[in-house]
Design goal:
- Helix content is 76%, strand content 1%.
- It is mostly helical and 364 residues long.
- A two-stranded antiparallel sheet has the order 1-2.
- Helix 6 runs antiparallel to helix 11 and helix 9 packs antiparallel against helix 11.
- The longest helix has 40 residues.
C-alpha cells in the first residue's frame, strides 16, 4: 500500500475521538452557508443594508422609501439572489468533484482540472468568443451570450466522451489511463487556447482572459435553473458511491473482494466528475483549487469517511465560492476581480502545503 493510500486510514485512527460529531459539523456548515449568503446579499456596489433587506424581501415595513425599495428589489431578485444561488451550486459541485476524484484515484493531490474537462470547456468557450466575433460567425452573433455556456458545456462533454473511450476497453475502465489521457488532452486544449489568444484582437483577448480567470458576473435565473437539476442529481448520487470510495482506499482488488462493483463505481464517479466540472466551466469559466482545498480542510475536521465527507464538501464548497465571489465584487468596486484569481491565491499556497506534508510522510 502506498503512502497516499495509507494516509486516510491512519488519519481515521489518529485523534478520531476528538473529532466533533457529524450533527455539529453539518449545523456549523449550514449556519455558514446562511451567514455568507446574508453577507453577499447586503454588500456590493449596490449595497442593501439589513434594515432595507426585509422590505426588499417583501415584508411589510412601515415608512420604506418607495424609490429605494424598487431599486433594492431589482438588485436583490434580478442580480444578487441568482448570483448567490449559482455561486453556491458551483462551489458545491467543484468541491464534490474534487472529493470524489481524490477518493477514486486514492491521491490527495487529484483535482478535476487534471482530467482535462475544464481545459476542454475553456477551449470551446474561447473558440466561441473568437468565431462569433468574426465575419464567418456573424450569423451567431445574436445569441452570443447563450453561445458561450453552450460551447463550454459541449467542449466539456466532448472531452469526457473522448477520455472515456480511450480509458475503456472490453467494459473495463482504467483510472490510470483516464488520468494520463486527461493530462494529454488538457495540454492539447491549452495549446489551442494559446493559438486563439495569439490570433485574437484586443477585445476578444480581454473576453478570453476574463473567461479563463473565472467570473459569475453573467449569473441569471435561467442559468440557475439549468444548474439546479445537475446539482440535485449529484447530491442524490452520493449514497451510491460513498461506501465504495471508502473501501477503494485499500485497492481495487480488495474492494472487489468485499463485494464492491469497482467498474460500476468508477463509471459513476467519472461521469459525475466530468458532468459537474463541465457545468461549472460552462457557467463561471475556469475556477481552480476549490476541489483541492475543501476536501482537505474537511478531512482535518471530520476524517476521511466519504459518507460524511462528500455532503460536507458540498456545503463548504458553497461557502468558499460565495465568500470568494463576494470579495471579488467588493474588492475593487464597482469593477470586479475575477474569482479565479482569489481561489488561486488561496488554493496555491494550500496545494504547496499538501505537497510538503506528503514529502514529510514519504520521508518518514
Amino acid at each position: 500500500m502506498t503512502v497516499t493510500e495509507a494516509t486516510p486510514l491512519a488519519s481515521a485512527k489518529a485523534g478520531g475521538s476528538m473529532r466533533p460529531s457529524a450533527i455539529a459539523v453539518y449545523a456549523a456548515l449550514i449556519a455558514g452557508v446562511v451567514a455568507v449568503a446574508l453577507l453577499a446579499v447586503t454588500v456590493g456596489a449596490a449595497g442593501i443594508p439589513l434594515p432595507r433587506l426585509a422590505a426588499a424581501l417583501g415584508l411589510n415595513i412601515a415608512g420604506a422609501d418607495s424609490a429605494l425599495l424598487a431599486r433594492d428589489e431589482l438588485v436583490l431578485w434580478s442580480i444578487r439572489i441568482p448570483r448567490i444561488a449559482i455561486a453556491g451550486m458551483m462551489g458545491g459541485l467543484l468541491a464534490l468533484s474534487g472529493a470524489i476524484m481524490q477518493g477514486l484515484f486514492r491521491n490527495p493531490l487529484a483535482d478535476p482540472a487534471l482530467v482535462g474537462v475544464s481545459s476542454g470547456g475553456a477551449f470551446a468557450a474561447a473558440s466561441a468568443i473568437v468565431i462569433s466575433d468574426s465575419a464567418w460567425g456573424a450569423s451567431f452573433r445574436f445569441m452570443q451570450l447563450e453561445l458561450l455556456p453552450v460551447a463550454a458545456f459541449a467542449g466539456s462533454l466532448l472531452t469526457t466522451t473522448i477520455l472515456y473511450k480511450i480509458a475503456s476497453r472490453e467494459g473495463r475502465t482504467s483510472v490510470a489511463i483516464f488520468l494520463l489521457a486527461g493530462l494529454a488532452i488538457a495540454a492539447i486544449a491549452n495549446a489551442g487556447i494559446g493559438l486563439l489568444v495569439f490570433v485574437a484582437d484586443d477585445r476578444q483577448l480581454r473576453d478570453i482572459t476574463f473567461w479563463l480567470l473565472g467570473s459569475l458576473s453573467g449569473a441569471t435565473w435561467p442559468k440557475a435553473v439549468m444548474v439546479a437539476p445537475v446539482a440535485l442529481l449529484a447530491v442524490l448520487a452520493i449514497p451510491l458511491i460513498a461506501r465504495g470510495l471508502d473501501v477503494l482506499v485499500l485497492g481495487e482488488a480488495e474492494a472487489f473482494h468485499t463485494g464492491i462493483d469497482v467498474e460500476r463505481l468508477k463509471k459513476i464517479s467519472i461521469v459525475m466528475i466530468s458532468a459537474m466540472t463541465g457545468v461549472a466551466v460552462s457557467i463561471c469559466g475556469v475556477v481552480g483549487f476549490v476541489g483541492i482545498v475543501v476536501p482537505h480542510l474537511l478531512r482535518m475536521v471530520i476524517g476521511p469517511g466519504h459518507r460524511l465527507l462528500l455532503p460536507a464538501s458540498v456545503f463548504l464548497g458553497a461557502i468558499l465560492l460565495i465568500l470568494a465571489d463576494t470579495i471579488a465584487r467588493v474588492l475593487a468596486a464597482p469593477a470586479e476581480v475575477p474569482i479565479g484569481i482569489l481561489t488561486a491565491a488561496l488554493g496555491a499556497p494550500f496545494f504547496l502545503f499538501i505537497l510538503l506534508r506528503q514529502r514529510k510522510l514519504i520521508a518518514s
